[in-house]
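Rotation project, supervised by the postdoc (A.L.). Task for the rotation student: set up a whole-complex structure prediction and record inputs and outputs verbatim in this book. Inputs entered:
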Amino acid sequence: DTGVSQDPRHKITKRGQNVTFRCDPISEHNRLYWYRQTLGQGPEFLTYFQNEAQLEKSRLLSDRFSAERPKGSFSTLEIQRTEQGDSAMYLCASSPRGGPEAFFGQGTRLTVV
Amino acid sequence: AQRVTQPEKLLSVFKGAPVELKCNYSYSGSPELFWYVQYSRQRLQLLLRHISRESIKGFTADLNKGETSFHLKKPFAQEEDSAMYYCALSGNSGGYQKVTFGTGTKLQVIP
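Outputs recorded:
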């Protein structure tokens, strides 16, 4: 499968624990997005990378959230001290250079208990 | 700021009936508009884009800049069209392209 890959697909964690998700974009896509989707809502923008540079971070992201894309390829999203309100589907998408459309991964479903 | 509005959370139609999923946008420049679809238990995927002016699975969408709309239409709904549909806008935000989504409309085609 040469599409966007996310790992893990599902994560159940206890409140207060830290979690980290990984996204592998389509090869040579220089742009990478993280979105969060809750039940009944569309994808909400969280953050955006162009190559290794993080160009925007949504106000939705508190200081407990951090994202990296160290070599301009895969990206990680870490949530520290998880809260029940963090329970959601976390989606990663990538876009090719010069192309506006986003290609999505399957998502990581986080459940905080 | 860019914004996408999908006023209907749920649209139920009978098989064979026409379908129109509404999308309105707010953006100061020239936007690129898309429709994404998410079938049950599948990932979000691109359905069509306004630039290509194509018909995919019988769906079409016309960008109306005067009404800032990009409604998705199909003349005869099929059961397999049942899914979540998201309208999306790609616009320039601070010097780069940002994709913003609407809240989605669930299309339910009744046999």
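Student's summary: Chain A touches chain B through 25 residues (CB under 8 Å).
Supervisor addendum: Chain A has a mean pLDDT of 92.
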